[in-house]
Specification:
Blueprint: E1 6-14, E2 17-20, E3 30-31, H1 35-44, E4 49-54, H2 55-59, H3 65-74, E5 78-82, H4 88-96, E6 101-104, H5 106-110, H6 112-122, E7 126-133, E8 136-139, E9 144-148, H7 149-159, E10 164-168, H8 180-189, E11 194-197, H9 203-210, E12 217-222, H10 224-227, H11 233-239
Parallel strand pairs: 1-4, 1-12, 4-5, 5-6, 6-7, 7-10, 10-11, 11-12
Antiparallel strand pairs: 1-2, 2-3, 7-8, 8-9
The chain binds ligand LGQLAAA5.
Protein name: Phosphoribosyl isomerase A
EC number: 5.3.1.16, 5.3.1.24
Subcellular location: Cytoplasm
C-alpha cells in the first residue's frame, strides 16, 4: 500500500480543447485551451500522473483519439487514459499510446465479458471507473444507468480488477468537497486500491482524502480546483507529501 496520496491532475478533452464540466453534463463546458499545454503545465509543476479523458468519445459525440495519443506520447510522466475505450480496437489504440493504464467506464457496465477478458490479459494496465450517483453506476457520458455500485464491485473484484477510479457525479466539477463517505464505503467493500475523483476544492480536501490512504485510497484526481486556481499543483503536492 502506498504511504502518500498520489495526485492526478486532469485534462478532459472536448472538441480539441481542455475543458471542465459541472456534474459531467454536456453543455456546461468551461474551456482552458490546448490540452497539450495544460498537460505540459501539470508535468512542469511536478505531477507524477496525468488523468487524460477523451470526453467526446465518452459522450459518443466523436473523438479526440489522435490528440490524446499525441498528448500521452509527449508526457514523461504516467498517464491514465479514459473515455470511449469499449472494444478491442479502442483499447489497442489506447494502450499503444504508451499510457500507464486505461480506465474503462461504460464497457464495465455493458460488456462485462469483454472487460473480464481484458482484465485477464492486461492486469493492472486496466482500471475501472465507477462513476456513481448515489450508488447507481452511470455510463455513456454519465447519461445511462448501469446497475448497482456494490454488486458491480463484487463482480469486478472476482474478475481480478486491479483498481477502481471512483467518481461521485454529484460532486464532479462543483468544488463542493469530495464524498469521503463514499470513498470509505468503497474501500470497505474491496481490497483493491481506489482513486478518488470529484469535488476537490481545497488543500484541506486533499488532506482529508490523504487520511484515507490507510483504508485503500491510493490517489486523487484534481480538476476544476487547479484550473480555477484554488491552489497550485505545487501546493497540492506539498500538502499530501
Ligand atoms: O470526466 C468527466 O468529467 C466525464 C464526464 C462525463 C462522462 C465521462 C467522464 N469522464 C470519464 O470518462 C470515462 C468513461 O468513459 P467510457 O464510459 O469508458 O466511454 C471515465 O473515466 C469517466 O470518469
Amino acid at each position: 500500500m502506498a504511504s502518500k496520496l498520489e495526485l492526478l491532475p486532469a485534462v478532459d478533452v472536448r472538441d480539441g480543447q481542455a475543458v471542465r464540466l459541472v456534474h459531467g453534463e454536456s453543455g456546461t463546458e468551461t474551456s482552458y485551451g490546448s490540452p497539450l499545454q495544460a498537460a505540459l503545465a501539470w508535468q512542469g509543476a511536478g505531477a507524477e500522473w496525468l488523468h487524460l479523458v477523451d470526453l467526446d468519445a465518452a459522450f459518443g459525440t466523436g473523438d479526440n483519439r489522435d490528440l490524446v495519443a499525441e498528448v500521452t506520447r509527449a508526457m514523461d510522466i504516467k498517464v491514465e487514459l479514459s473515455g470511449g475505450i469499449r472494444d478491442d480496437a479502442s483499447l489497442a489504440k489506447a494502450l499503444a499510446t504508451g499510457c500507464t493504464r486505461v480506465n474503462l467506464g461504460t464497457a464495465a457496465l455493458e460488456t462485462p465479458e469483454w472487460v473480464a477478458k481484458v482484465i485477464a490479459e492486461h492486469g493492472d494496465r486496466i482500471a475501472v471507473g465507477l462513476d456513481v450517483r448515489g450508488t447507481t453506476l452511470k455510463g455513456r457520458g454519465w447519461t445511462r444507468d448501469g446497475g448497482d455500485l456494490y454488486e458491480t464491485l463484487e463482480r469486478l473484484d472476482k474478475e481480478g480488477c486491479a483498481r477502481y477510479v471512483v467518481t461521485d457525479i454529484a460532486k464532479d466539477g462543483t468544488l463542493q468537497g469530495p464524498n469521503l463517505e463514499l470513498l470509505r464505503n468503497v474501500c470497505a467493500a474491496t481490497d483493491r486500491p481506489v482513486v478518488a475523483s470529484g469535488g476537490v476544492s481545497s488543500l484541506d480536501d486533499l488532506r482529508a482524502i490523504a487520511e484515507l490512504v490507510p483504508l485503500g485510497v491510493e490517489g486523487s484526481i484534481v480538476g476544476k480546483a487547479l484550473y480555477a486556481k484554488a491552489f497550485t499543483l505545487e501546493e497540492a503536492l506539498e500538502a499530501v507529501s
